[in-house]
Amino acid sequence: MAPIVLVTGADGFVGRHLVTALNRVGWHVRLAQRSSAVQSSNLDVVTGLDLGPSTNWQSALKGVEAIVHLAARAHRSARIQQREKELYFSINVDGTIQLARSAADVGVRNFIFLSSIAVNGSATDGRQPFSERDTISPTTIYGRSKAAAEAELARLASKGSMVVTAIRAPMIYGGNAGGNFQRLTFAVRKGIPLPFSMIHNRRAFLGVENLSSFIAHRLSTTVSSKFDIFLLADDQQVSTPEFIRELAYASACIPRLFPVPTTILRVPLRYLGLHDALLGSLEVDTTKARATGWRCPLTLSEGLARAVKQ
What we know:
The chain has 310 residues and is α/β, with parallel strands linked by helices. 38% of the residues lie in helices and 14% in strands. The chain is built from 11 helices and 9 strands. A 7-stranded parallel beta sheet has the order 3-2-1-4-5-6-9, with helices on both faces. The chain has a two-stranded parallel ribbon with strand order 7-8. Helix 7 packs across helix 11. It starts with a strand and ends with a helix.
């Protein structure tokens, strides 16, 4: 029988792509998801398990060899994060550790945690790219909750035999992605003029296929360290207007960019909570991930081409 991997958040954007990728390389995937809708009777699905500090994972973990933990309270506006601070920590920290402790107790050997580059900080303007060696500097409730979960996972891993991997990802794009990528794709396809051609930054992005590839690689690799952190991104790190042009080409559209000085854009984008995402630089050093022997299977152009076709 194929080894069983439990994927939390399996019905989310990343989860749906990852489930397909892991099935392809021979894993039996057990889906832990919020929705009770099951598309096929052949799927191994568990529902009704809210991510929290007292969740009973016993039945879901039966026979499980590895876990990929994607479920989380997602990044939202700063105002919402501040209002829901306790909820962020209850789900992203307490809920994660409850799952990890339950997994360790039943002998799960491998636990992969999808963290966020927000643990490192929000921008790399005027400094070197983020790396695993940095002193962390999260600036949001979401980032702090992911950092706290990493710290607790590291402590748990040091006391047992379960190997824990944390993956800090920048913006993840792909077919059926939501958030800023969905909004940007809509604008490009509708031919909405965007005032970003004078932005000169560099940002890391991560195609969901590249993320899934690294997770599959990590699950198949024998490692000696109990706890490890990897920063992950596509090989190409580009400016905001370059990303929009690549997205437009992938969508067979003309990129409609026009010049507005960044000094004028700062105030409205800060008000909308998009200042760092559009104007700031966020570069990532992926040397450590590549040192494992893994390589991005898709370029940025190839990843965007797949994203807009799904």
